[in-house]
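Teaching assistant here, posting this on the class forum so everyone can see the example we discussed in section. The complex has two components, and the goal was to see what a joint structure prediction looks like when all of them are supplied at once.
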Amino acid sequence: MANIRELDKRRKSIRNIRKITRTMELIATARFKKAMDRASAANDYTQRITAIVRDLAAAGLEVSHPLLAERPEIKSSTILMLTSNRGLCGGYNGSVIRAAVQRRNELSDSSDSFRFEISGKRGIAAMKFRNVAIDQMYTNFEDQPAFGEVAKIADRLMEEFTTGRMDRLDVAYTRFVSVSKQITTVETLLPFSQPKPEDEPLAGGAAGAASGSTSGHVAKNDYEFLPSAESILEEVVPASFRVKLFKCFLDAAVSEQIARMVAMKSATENAGDIIKQLSTTFNRARQSKITQEIMEIIGGVEALEA
Amino acid sequence: MSTIQCVVVTPERTELDVQAESVTVPLFDGEMGILKGHSPLVGRLGYGLLRIKSAGSSQNYFVEGGFVQVADNVVSVLTDNVVDASQLNSTAAAQAMHDALALPTDLPELKTTRDKAIDRARALSRITA
């Protein structure tokens, strides 16, 4: 008879778990929407800065900058890994960690020194477990990374690169493509590759103006540069690097919430399945217990009559 | 009245999108006023006041570097940070100057950071004075 009580207890506890996972799913959905709004709000800046770069290129300027320079020899490289602070988000952290470790193994053959920078408690814990030296840790990035904080990291990385202490920077993160598709990527951010004008959709205002021929648009906007195109380029490249890194953080935040949403949704569904199964077993056990009791009573009555 | 569109964006979001009669931007070496029909221009911004005049009233914002692009009667201001100037006060400016002067100068890179911070504090105190 203990069996029945046991089954009922399990069913109750799974019901509680289902409540929790459903709540977590709802929270993740709300956070995802917020993170998504932020990410799309940030797009405007990216588009406009890309437009400026395009116009600079159209002005016939040779795009060269210390941050764009390819190093002949990679002596020291850095990997920045963006993971989450919290777990329960399916394979999100695992795949980023795997990708980063793989890139690290590839790089450790060619470069002399190696630095690992990690954002997110999950990644830090995983690397500590693997006995990998971590040079820099950040745990201050939640679902809404602030540009100011990312810019600080970006400035430090740029300074390390330009002074020659670092020859290459890779960022391992989950790139957000659409709600149903996020790709784990390891991207080389330094040396920085200039955003190609055709990579990004044109900014709203410019798109309307450029709907004719592109050459007409360029000819029309014969820009005046203050103080000079070179000086603007000097500022544009670091600014676009900062924004690019910020975008990585935003993408990672959005993807994390999606991963958690999906994981919690399937957890809720699985809990429902288990409850169904347990209920069936429970009812069967209860029924057989009742049958057995009736048989016992009938047996007792018959014994008395005999 | 002929107006010009002014859009202020930071990496985080679009802060402003308004129609204005005139826009004054703080370029790295001085202010520049922009009216309707201005020729296309890309300029580097310094620290200072962005003034947007519309319907007789003027709104002031403190911008921290970045760029301005003028094309097709649209002024796009790309900046790292923008603050409503009425929220600034001289104590905050003095504090910013104090913090900037306390920054280390022992490395060339650190010195440029310090110089930037000092420029920012100077602009702040100029505005709030």
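For the discussion questions: Chain A has one domain: 33-260. Strands of chain A lie at 76-82, 113-119, 136-138, 168-178, 181-190, 224-226. Think about how each of these relates to the inputs above.
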